[in-house]
Amino acid sequence: MTAPPVPLIGLPACVRDIGIHPFHVVGDKYMRAVVDAAGGLPVAVPALGGALDQDAVLDRCDGLLFTGSPSNVEPAHYDGPPSADGTLHDPERDATTLPLIRSAIDAGIPILCICRGFQELNVALGGSLHQEVHNLPGRMDHRSDEGQPRDVQYGPIHEVTLTADGLLASLWPAPEVMVNSLHAQGINSPAPRLAIEAVAPDGQIEAVRVSDAPSFALGVQWHPEWKVTEDAFSTAIFGAFGDAARARATSRLGASAGDSRSLPPALASGS
Predict the structure, then answer these.
(1) pLDDT tens across 89-126, in order?
(2) What is the pTM of this model?
(3) Phi-psi sector, 27: left (phi>0), alpha (psi -120 to 50), beta
(4) Which residues are known to be catalytic?
């Protein structure tokens, strides 16, 4: 029996200055989660904005993982007020991810959007963000305590209630689950195409899916990539994403094989 193909998962990068030069970077924890829990082959997608051939990315990738980041989506993309002084932005990433999210959904390519990626998903489809959720009346402070060790910062912090009959509810046996949500920004107005999948105790939206997407298209505000194989819910999320990407890979490679069979023998054999 032929083994299923290993799906190629693209992870759009952030742009960071290291020394005097800009680098395109992707967090190690996201790369490892793709391998360990989605069964995929991770590849960094450079944040080149309009200089990136996005059609080529979509042709080759079986899934896209939009990661978290210390930077915020620039508020001009959702008609928000100017950011507070000192807010970190990444215009190259915005210029890459926002159109890539829209194109990937339309092309039926599975996407998983985490933290900043969750916020990008909402903005890309026409939603808006709160820049400082902790300053809203009645909302919790969802930010991490950066004075704590990393394991504490990324540990479970509050429950979310899963939407009945939603995608996440199908992956978990209980109506609530503890998550490691740490963020300052959050969804204000959800985009029209998004269905709410989970909310925090204070009413803050914590997960969404694209209701009319032809394939897997999920966003979560928390961090399932963190020690993914040690948390059953996180493993289930990445597993479902990986299954969708594998189905895409099987279809894509099958179509490629069909194309090869239609070529002259010399070209089909690569000689």
Answers:
(1) 999 999 999 999 999 999 999 999 999 999 999 999 99
(2) 0.91
(3) beta
(4) 115, 223, 225
